[in-house]
Amino acid sequence: MSSLRIYNDNDFSQPLVFTEDGAEISRQLNEVGIRFERWSTRELDEGATPDSILAAYQAEVEKLKAENGFTTADVVSLTPTHPQKDDFRKKFLDEHRHSEDEVRFFVRGQGLFYLHLDDKVYVVQCRKNDLISVPNGTKHWFDMGPEPEFTCVRLFTNPEGWVAQFTGDEIASKAPRFEQLIEAA
Questions:
Q1: Beta-carbon-side half-sphere exposure of residue 167 (alpha carbons within 13 Å)
Q2: Residue 182 and which of 89, 128, 149, 162 are 20 to 30 A apart at CA?
Q3: Is pLDDT larger for residue 160 or for residue 38?
Q4: Are the C-beta atoms of residues 148 and 79 closer than 8 Å to each other?
Q5: Strand duo 72-78 + 35-38: pairing
Q6: How high is the pLDDT of residue 41?
Q7: What band does 185 get if pLDDT is binned at 50, 70 and 90?
Q8: How confident is the model at residue 157 (pLDDT cuts 50, 70, 90)?
Q9: Inter-residue contact 155 to 103 (CB < 8 Å)
């Protein structure tokens, strides 16, 4: 089940807000400029290819392209057996920004987006059928956990511009990790 935890950015001992209600997650995130939606489920074969995944969600992807000027979409997957899973996890564990929106639709699996907005950190557990759109310039980080398992559709206005610009803030190292929030639950 998807969830949202909101913490003060100087105290991760107890969330100010915790909810697993999809409408409430969407409402709380929309108030701070983050798009969060649940898309209808599509039946996909176990061995669905990136092309077949994009074809299954073509209508939704084309709608987002038309609304936001995205020019391309692709599919990214990671599994617990991937030989570089630790490197990929580490790559996005520190607070950073991008010069374009970060849009992810979870076809399967899950991951945690941490959004640092003013003096709060919003921890969004995204799961299958969740869409999240993090506006460009938003301070954030992503934790896929030690045994990553997800497939996401990504949308870009300029794939070359999607490079992490690290803030140098150590806040991510103080926040609870995937193992503490998800695996312990």
A1: 19
A2: 162
A3: 38
A4: yes
A5: unpaired
A6: 81
A7: low
A8: confident
A9: yes
Place of tokens 């312990």: 184
Name the one residue in this structure whose structure tokens are 């759109």: 133
Measure the CA dihedral 54/2/25/85, to 10°. Answer: -70
pLDDT value at position 166?
95
Environment class of 25 (CB within 10 Å of its CB; exposed 0-12, middle 13-18, buried 19+): buried
Residue with tokens 């105290």: 11
Long-range contact set of residues 13-18: C-beta below 8 Å, sequence gap at least 24: 15/123, 16/120
Residue 90's contacts (CB-CB under 8 Å, 6 or more residues apart) are none
Identify the residue whose tokens are 């108030």.
31
Q: How confident is the model over 69-92, as a mean pLDDT?
A: 94
User: Nearest Cα to 54, choosing from 46, 68, 44?
Assistant: 44
CA triplet 96, 104, 28: central angle to 5 degrees?
A: 80
